Amino acid sequence: xxxxxxxxxxxxxxIEREARGWSLAELAEQSGVSKAMIxxxxxxxxxxxxxxxxxxxxxxxxxxxxxxxxxxxxxxQVALAAEQPVWTDPETGYTRRAVSPPNSLLELLEVSxxxxxxxxxxxxxxxxxxxxxxxxxGRLDFQEGRTLHHLAEGDCLLLGPPADCVFFNPGSxxxxxxxxxxxx
Amino acid sequence: xxxxxxxxxxxxxxIEREARGWSLAELAEQSGVSKAMIxxxxxxxxxxxxxxxxxxxxxxxxxxxxxxxxxxxxxxQVALAAEQPVWTDPETGYTRRAVSPPNSLLELLEVSxxxxxxxxxxxxxxxxxxxxxxxxxGRLDFQEGRTLHHLAEGDCLLLGPPADCVFFNPGSxxxxxxxxxxxx
DNA sequence: TTATTTTGTCCACTATAGAAGACGATTGAC
DNA sequence: GTCAATCGTCTTCTATAGTGGACAAAATAA
Lengths: 184, 184
Description:
2 copies of one chain form a homodimer.
Chain A (H helix, E strand, L loop, with lengths): L5 H14 L4 H8 L3 H8 L7 H11 L3 H12 L10 E3 L6 E4 L7 E8 L4 E4 L6 E10 L2 E5 L2 E5 L4 E3 L6 E4 L6 E9 L1
Antiparallel strand pairs in A: 1-2, 2-3, 3-10, 4-9, 5-8, 5-10, 6-7, 6-9
The structure holds a DNA duplex.
């Protein structure tokens, strides 16, 4: 709250720019701010004035207050367990919890899979750089393409190239496992 | 959205400071920003950097994004009827609606006064530069110090120096009138 | 390969943000 | 009335925000 917001603005600025696939030159043209200055801001070598912040947020089509709010969120270091978004499939009881703070480079998902439940994932859903599966408790049958992996408690699997996958809990108790991934 | 936020920030900054009863020197001490610079920012003669915005919002105990959001609100030109804050006295049924957009220099209040109701105002409540009362419908008896004004529909009264005042509706129907004022 | 475009950073320069203190105006105490 | 404290603005000076252009590295094209 009383910390210098330069760092948070820097990372947020870069995220917004790259999310749009813009180069420094493109954002410079859109915003009217020189690309040298944008480069400095993104590297925390300059503290932008309200005027340039207004121009940059305008180029993104965001109100300045929203851009600042996003910057503040990105700064959060701790994702409290109580605040982590949880999704539950009402049919199967499958639940997935997003553990990592928002906008992290590395994402951790904690999954609970009820007994007997079978969750298929098409190959198209895996647009990640890297992905691993680590079993916390119980036994997990994981089918990756044509290969079937039997994973026991503590086992960790590194996924290969994109393939149709299926998660299955063959036991009689819910199992818990972690999915760790880095996005493209 | 793509406008320079300097003006909006300036007025918001002054509002926050004066709401806390702080002088420039006090805010300077709280925030670590020189009072000369705060003065410039409030008069739109400088565009504050992210660093000083962070310090100032910190002094107010506000996240930067909230300060920006408040600044943007102050910039709104239209106060929609549905969004205007209305206050009703549960005892008498007296209602007062703040018509003007927030933080305007000139404020308009629309008042509805039920029949027979008498609303006194002590002289101390009038810390305004100028104030006028304009009757929209009905008849209003308005006592200003020792003078009693009988105001009919369409009449408009310019108030003199601060004095104890009383609003009274002598009729059998609710009356509506407008209070227009400029704050000190 | 070599040439060309595009990337982000660095350099030199100008504009201005920001600090510290002086100043006149106002207020209140006596 | 005088004096002192406090207000916001103005002045001077330094630090740095901001620009335009040069630059090397990487990607793309031929």
